[in-house]
Design brief:
Length: 251
């Protein structure tokens, strides 16, 4: 049930999906993996939209090199845990929600337990080995998973519905090498907001999810391209036993 204050706060989006949609957001628990370049904008828009319970997981502390893109962290937060800094800003933005900070390293050992009981997972991590652990945990728990990744001026995102659509390992079967990558803040800003947008659609049941396709952002050309991705029956995460390449075709 929404309060009078919530009806007022969310009035412009209640016009879109009604009080029922807003109540769905309020009763949702979303797991945001990462409080960095993608996690900050994704969490900010999910908090502003009224997702009732955000769990935000990140083991790092704020560093000065983060500040060109990780917009929930300020100069005065340098050295503080990112999840503490992020929680403070999110609650200042919207005191009606719950924000649960988890200063943990996400791995195969804990991912399934961490996401259990959540309605949706936002993948805002920066390494593919951690993403694979999260993807498998989402599949195991049958939780929709919104993937996003960036480098430099470019990024991509996709929505994954376990058991129904191509998963992260169908799309990206080999992890790119781990490295310090260049990035301009607007790239994760754009992709993180798209992830929040897809999450809001998924929770409220609005529109069509971006499943079985990768949305590619070419920031230098300022262009989006859609790539069709098919589920791989041999995917080691969601399919059979042997690893095979994801199949792609331009659409
Ligand atoms: Zn798969």
């Amino acid at each position: 049930m929404l309060t009078d204050s919530e009806r007022e706060r969310y009035s412009r989006q209640i016009l879109l999906f009604g009080e029922e949609g807003q109540e769905r957001l309020k009763s949702s628990k979303v797991f945001i993996a990462g409080a960095g370049g993608l996690g900050c904008p994704a969490a900010a828009y999910l908090a502003a939209a009224g997702v009732g319970h955000l769990v935000i997981a990140d083991c790092d502390s704020v560093d000065r090199t983060n500040l060109n893109r990780q917009i929930l962290h300020y100069e005065s937060d340098i050295g503080r845990p990112k999840v503490v800094s992020a929680r403070e800003k999110l609650l200042s933005m919207n005191p009606d929600i719950r924000v649960e900070p988890l200063a943990v390293i996400i791995s195969d050992n804990n991912a399934s337990t961490l996401v259990s009981g959540c309605d949706l997972v936002v993948d805002a991590l920066d390494t593919f080995t951690d993403r694979y652990a999260l993807n498998r945990a989402a599949i195991r728990n049958r939780i929709p998973y919104i993937h996003g990744a960036v480098s430099g001026f470019d990024g991509h995102m996709a929505t994954i519905i376990p058991g129904e659509t191509a998963c992260l390992e169908c799309m990206v079967p080999e992890a790119p090498p781990r490295s310090v990558f260049p990035v301009v803040g607007t790239t994760p800003g754009l992709i993180g907001v798209l992830q929040a947008h897809e999450a809001i659609k998924q929770i409220t049941g609005q529109g069509e999810p971006l499943t079985n396709q990768l949305v590619l952002w070419d920031g230098k050309a300022s262009q989006f391209t859609m790539i069709r991705v098919e589920r791989d029956p041999d995917c080691p995460a969601c399919g059979g036993d042997s690893r095979a390449s994801g199949r792609r075709r331009e659409i």
